[in-house]
Amino acid sequence: xxxxxxxxxxxxxxxxxxxxxxxxxxxxxxxxxxxxxxxxxxxxxxxxxxxxxxxxxxxxxxxxxxxxxxxxxxxxxxxxxxxxxxxxxxxxxxxxxxxxxxxxxxxxxxxxxxxxxxxxxxxxxxxxxxxxxxxxxxxxxxxxxxxxxxxxxxxxxxxxxxxxxxxxxxxxxxxxxxxxxxxxxxxxxxxxxxxxxxxxxxxxxxxxxxxxxxxxxxxxxxxxxxxxxxxxxxxxxxxxxxxxxxxxxxxxxxxxxxxxxxxxxxxxxxxxxxxxxxxxxxxxxxxxxxxxxxxxxxxxxxxxxxxxxxxxxxxxxxxxxxxxxxxxxxxxxxxxxxxxx
Length: 341
Hints:
With 341 residues, this protein is α/β, with parallel strands linked by helices. The protein has helices at 46-49, 138-145, 186-194, 233-244, 253-267, 303-311, 314-326; strands at 27-31, 38-42, 55-59, 61-63, 67-72, 78-88, 91-97, 107-110, 115-122, 127-134, 171-174, 198-204, 227-231, 249-252, 273-277, 292-296, 337-340.
């Protein structure tokens, strides 16, 4: 299967640059994954498409303000770091820009020296390891100096940091938001629970894979970067009970999907576990965990578009995207939503 097979035409004007004033005011496209039948509505109506006994699985990860802009101490050259993964205490794997200006031993200063970083190693694709120096608590320093790491296709500055967090974000550690969850409000979640839909949480810290395009022609040769996940004992028990009772398990976002499918693929059941996953889901994959997916509209030729195509078919998904473009839905992180059922 070729990467080109997952391309589609998207006018730039349909790429959402800012979040809507009301989270649940976004549009919702509902797709029957077997027939390709489409319905158009708004996200607050998601309640009408959920059934009593359904299980809704959220990713409770919280985004780090992981984008740091500073200067190289020797030359005052402008340097940008994006924190991706803590390797050990105060040592982080980062994306660096521009990488050519950084050598092993380079010191970078942020916030007039309140935070400093030394390059410990350089890797491929602009990656490297950095040791951080500061006084106080690292996450507090990062919160005061860092910016939300918005994707490169968003050119507007984010006015409120919390609009790139879900209302249920708890576990700090992501380099990007699980954006399918941005549409939910506390009030909407309450209405869903009142319909006797069970809401459960897992954790997947969104990492480098979010920022990396597929660069190979043959998708089977693409290597996914690993991301940390965790599933609690109580959540596993409730998911297993739902499976036993043949109730629908609906993932909110491709990140929740990757946790659920990873655990089921690894153990054949849901269980209390943590680990790293590099699962790559594309057409031909047989889903073992989920029955439906709430997700945003994804980039052309991306691994996320391949994942949603696996849940339906490539032709149905591309036809649906064509319809979404025609109906002028908004795409990507701050865009509209889709329920594949």
